[in-house]
Amino acid sequence: MAKTKSIFRCTNCGTTYPKWAGQCRSCKAWQSLEEDVVSGSGAPSRSAVPLSPALPIGQVDAQAAQARSTGVSELDRVLGGGMVPGAVVLLAGEPGIGKSTLLLDVAAKAAERVRASSGGTVLYLTGEESASQVRLRAERIGALDPGLLLAAENDLSRALGHIEAHAPALVVVDSVQTLASPTEEGSPGGVTQVRAVAGALIAVAKQRNIPVLLVGHVTKSGNIAGPRVLEHLVDVVLHFEGDRHTRLRLLRAVKNRYGPTDEVGCFELADRGILGLEDPSGLFLSQTSQSVPGTCVTVTLEGRRPMPTEVQALVAKTSAGSPRRTTSGVDSSRVAMILAVLQARLGVDLSSCDVYASTVGGARTAEPAADLALAMSIVSAASDAAPKERLVAIGEVSLTGEVRQTVGIERRLAEAQRLGFAFAIVPRGALDGLRIPAGMTVRGVGDLSEAARLALPGITPGSAAAEHSSSGR
């Protein structure tokens, strides 16, 4: 009989300790150590016969690792073309964000495709809801395919029995934290159980060449619940994110052994389920056709995808001793930095004014390329002057007031031209070798003062801001 012993493992970084401690010395996380029971047996005393011989790398069959479409184009974009046979994908996200709805739709589309081609099936294992609850959701989103098999299980051995009995073409497990192995100690969702469950499912996926989609819970800090080793074991880690008050959902790849990690999938949460958005441009722009003071449009990059985003600012006189700085969708620290640069380099003094900065449509941007648009919207609001019509501003602002170059200028300008923007302000250094889209005027600027003169013709930023502050508008 192999001896067992207890160790304490950090759920954040995986570091082990012989005794419990309040803080992990490696990652400095508090209350992150959980007890883990391990076997005390040593390494094998003799070698074993390999299951398959080693081959020259040129003779290894590469067709087995070809990606196959899931039927959801936005998910295929993020995965790098589709699911690879034997791959294990972990999808994490906040509660209620739509993980189960997305994967149920993926399972139904995969079942329809498999049934039509080979007569196979897709297995959906749910441990959080009953089978009838999942059936009602499937009816609502139109996912009632006869090739989709549904089972409610919390026991790992019975879940593996379903996989062995049906030999499905795809397995969806919702979620990995609800399954428990009868041979391991601890409650479902604990370090020991999650590692055992994930290890068993990964072994089945590799042995049978079955792609597996796992749903993972997240903690309050946004990290995937369970041991950190779970993210190392799986092949792909996806994060499903979005604001509860908006219908837009973004799917990002944090880890991908078979494709890129710089792609983003866009989805819309609708009454009939989660729908892929192949062209999300325009979601973050206001519907008015005329320029309004305090607005400016920029183009950010979500992965490789350009996303036009409108930045709005409002400047209001205040009698309070400490003026307010309120932001929504933009980084508050960058807003504070830009306000300081505007005051020091352009003379725009807003120390006696409340400043509100926001994006349209619930967009979130922390990219430095949005600095110039944010600065122009603040200057426009302070001077109460509308910027040029069909204007887009792209560039990073430094502490010296310089407009610095950013990546992907050509892609950003091409997307702006496609949406009807005719005038663009970019860093002067980006003009070298730049291919300007047809029908678009592009001007390079070196600092904020030059950018303000182009974006707000006839307005002197410093004097306009001083007038705004003294008049109390």
From TrEMBL:
For whether the record's keyword set contains Ribonucleoprotein, the answer is no
Region described as Lon-protease-like: spans on this chain: 354-473
CDD domains from the entry?
A: RadA_SMS_N
Signal peptide location in the record? none
GO cellular component labels = cytosol
* Organism superkingdom: Bacteria
Q: Where is this motif: RadA KNRFG motif?
A: 255-259
**RecA family profile domain: from which residue to which, for each copy?**
64-218
What GO biological process terms does the UniProt entry carry, in alphabetical order? recombinational repair
Alphabetical list of Pfam families matching this protein: AAA_25 (PF13481), ChlI (PF13541), Zn_ribbon_LapB (PF18073)
- Which Gene3D superfamilies is this protein grouped with? 3.30.230.10, P-loop containing nucleotide triphosphate hydrolases
* Keywords from the UniProt entry: ATP-binding, DNA damage, DNA repair, DNA-binding, Hydrolase, Metal-binding, Nucleotide-binding, Stress response, Zinc, Zinc-finger
Residues engaged in binding ATP = G93, E94, P95, G96, I97, G98, K99, S100
Q: Which GO terms describe its molecular function?
A: ATP binding; ATP-dependent DNA damage sensor activity; damaged DNA binding; hydrolase activity; zinc ion binding
The record's listing under HAMAP family reads:
RadA_bact
- Entry function: Plays a role in repairing double-strand DNA breaks, probably involving stabilizing or processing branched DNA or blocked replication forks.
What family name appears in the similarity comment?
Answer: Belongs to the RecA family. RadA subfamily.
The domain comment in this protein's record states: The middle region has homology to RecA with ATPase motifs including the RadA KNRFG motif, while the C-terminus is homologous to Lon protease.
State the protein's name.
Answer: DNA repair protein RadA
What is the species of this protein? Nanchangia anserum
Q: Which gene encodes it?
A: radA
